[in-house]
Design a protein that fits this description.
Elements: H1 3-7, E1 23-32, E2 35-45, E3 51-54, H2 61-69, E4 76-81, E5 92-95, H3 106-116, H4 121-134, H5 150-162, E6 168-172, H6 180-195, E7 199-203, H7 207-213, E8 216-221, E9 224-230, H8 231-236, H9 241-247
Bound molecules: adenosine-5'-triphosphate (ATP) and magnesium ion.
């Protein structure tokens, strides 16, 4: 049996819901503190390719992710999900750089998540087992989640998000403080999610990571999307001077770039 098939028991087979697609984003704007921080984004999220969101610190990447996830409300603009104005329950999952885990064991964190997602008690045991295997967390199942290392916590957060069987998985710098081995484990889970039909969008500052896992790069600067380009081309021949400058380590956000009304 191939390794991938071992990792997920059939009961955890992840299936996308076609009715979720495409996600259309029109004029998405977010202002706070007298500044326009995300400025009229127009783009479409399609199922399949892994998208890296890149851009300098303060470009508006994390705000954009939170807007897409519905965690904050836009100041203007619309989003639609397969024509509906709201995503369905559990269709979008988010993992942040510092995951928030419950004060209970690793296995209990997964069991609680599955319960939240409406999985019956008699199915949860097998699914917790499969998720532990997927995250290579079997030996840590009874450990309190909060004593796990950063890399282990991130693996747990990621498989907990996958337990939702989301259509869209949003990751905000999921490996920012992890060593190469822990990073490789997370990238393996991203590849697995993609193979299972989950659309993954991840914010990363790591060029190597973008090249390893992403099919295209959505590049942001000063609250705007400057370009969306296949990954190889983005690093070889970016379309915009901003992306070229970023790739050469020359790009900073202009301090007044996102002032409203200027
Ligand atoms: N509530 C707020 N009020 C005012 N400014 C805010 C607020 N939230 C975020 N900002 C500013 O919005 C800008 C964009 O923030 P965001 O977190 O999206 O950046 P980012 O692209 O994710 O950057 P990084 O790479 O550093 O994570 C930053 O300059 C930040 O200081
Ligand atoms: Mg950020």
């Amino acid at each position: 049996m191939p390794e991938a098939a071992l990792a997920l028991a059939p009961s955890v087979a992840l299936t996308g819901d076609d009715r979720f697609w495409p996600v259309e984003i029109n004029g998405l704007t977010y202002a706070a503190g007298g500044k326009v921080l995300v400025d009229g984004l127009n783009f479409r999220i399609v199922q399949g390719p892994v998208t890296a969101i890149m851009g300098p610190n303060g470009a508006g990447k994390s705000i954009t992710l939170r807007l897409i996830a519905g965690l904050i409300a836009p100041s203007a603009g619309t989003m639609s999900y397969g024509g509906a104005s709201m995503p369905g329950a559990n269709q979008i999952a988010v993992v942040f750089q510092r995951p928030v885990l419950l004060r209970r064991s690793v296995a209990a964190n997964l069991d609680h998540a599955l319960k939240t997602y409406g999985v019956d008690r008699d199915q949860r045991r097998d699914r917790v087992k499969a998720l532990l295997a997927l995250g290579q967390l079997e030996d840590l199942a009874r450990q309190p989640a909060r004593v796990l290392s950063g890399g282990e916590q991130q693996r747990l957060a990621l498989v907990r998000a996958l337990a939702a069987e989301p259509c869209l998985l949003l990751l905000d710098e999921p490996t920012a403080s992890l060593d190469p081995q822990a990073t490789a484990a997370i990238e393996g889970l991203i590849a697995r999610a993609k193979a299972d039909g989950i659309k993954v969008m991840l914010i990363t500052h790591d060029r190597g990571q973008a090249q390893r896992v992403a099919d295209d790069v959505l590049f942001m600067h000063a609250g705007r999307i400057v370009e969306q380009t296949p990954t190889d081309r983005f690093f070889d021949r970016p379309q915009s001077p901003e992306a070229a400058a970023y790739n050469d380590g020359r790009l900073l956000l202009p301090s007044n770039a996102s002032n409203s009304g200027s």
